[in-house]
Design a protein that fits this description.
With 284 residues, the protein is of the alpha+beta class. The chain is 25% helix and 23% strand.
Length: 284
């Protein structure tokens, strides 16, 4: 009789509670195991935690602005609900003489993109990430199967198996969202004509002084602050996003810095941060 519950139930003063506890114990146990992870509650945004400096960014490449229309011939899924209208790539818009484009820097040969899904993917989806060089020649195309997902933020980490980005060369990325209008398990998937989102990215190099400063940083948050200070958006956001996604006990300051960075990028951070366990690239 080592269980505290059994000792309480068989003591004389609590003997009369035994039938009630027997009934309640399995129910509460089931609820405890089935409870879904809660999104991280928003805390007041502290802009002093991180500062994104875009004053010295190179000019974005000339070209088409982000497409807002759906592909021709679309069927169900993407076209008859608000799903695609609520998709936001987490990259700031930069104004040019003709239009505004999503544009930012990275130091990574294989970067990571983040997408906010205001409506989730109730039936699942297939998303492809295509990277094109300055001549619009395709560098690679990576497929990301997306299982049924609630609203939140998803990550597209480019695998190291594809060709690397070359330094100081602008690239165009395109996310093509194929909504599933068939079986939500994806076993009987029926993918629609895609909805496209696009932006630009450039791999940059940093000075030896910045490299030494990064080496002295003790936490991902400190490294993110340094990248943001030098205008390297993709790396700053990814350091914070990975920390939120992978750490069940993430520090509130990391969540605040994430929200502050999105706010500074005019990206309207949600009231609650929910970074979903998605998405794994599909083997070619």
């Amino acid at each position: 009789m080592n269980s505290p519950l059994l000792r309480i139930c068989f003591s004389k003063q609590f003997y009369f509670l035994f039938p009630l506890l027997v009934l309640l114990y399995p129910v509460t146990t089931v609820f405890a195991h089935e409870r879904s992870p809660s999104p991280l509650a928003a805390t007041p945004i502290n802009p002093d935690l991180i500062r994104f400096n875009n004053s010295d960014l190179p000019d974005p490449p000339s070209g088409g602005s982000e497409p807002t229309g759906r592909g021709s011939g679309g069927r169900r899924g993407c076209n008859n609900n608000r799903l695609t209208d609520a998709l936001t790539p987490l990259v700031p818009l930069t104004s040019t003489a003709q239009h505004a484009v999503r544009w930012g820097l990275t130091t990574e040969a294989h970067p990571t993109l983040w997408l906010q899904t205001g409506e989730g993917f109730p039936q699942g989806a297939l998303i492809t990430l295509t990277m094109r060089d300055r001549h619009q020649e395709s560098l690679y195309r990576v497929r990301f199967p997306v299982p049924k997902q609630q609203a939140g933020i998803v990550r597209f980490a480019v695998p190291p198996s594809v060709p690397p980005l070359q330094p100081n060369q602008p690239y165009t990325w395109q996310l093509s969202v194929f909504c599933n209008s068939g079986d939500s398990s994806l076993a009987g998937a029926s993918f629609d004509t895609p909805f496209h989102l696009m932006g630009y990215i450039q791999r940059t190099t940093v000075s030896e002084a910045v490299i030494q400063t990064l080496k002295q940083a003790k936490t991902p948050l400190e490294r993110a602050v340094i990248f943001a200070e030098y205008g390297i958006w993709y790396d700053a956001l990814t350091l914070l996003g990975n920390q939120i996604q992978n750490d069940s006990a993430v520090a509130p300051t990391v969540v605040q810095a994430w929200s502050a960075l999105l706010q500074q990028g005019q990206l309207n951070p949600p009231s609650k941060v929910e970074v979903l366990p998605c998405c794994t690239p599909q083997a070619n």
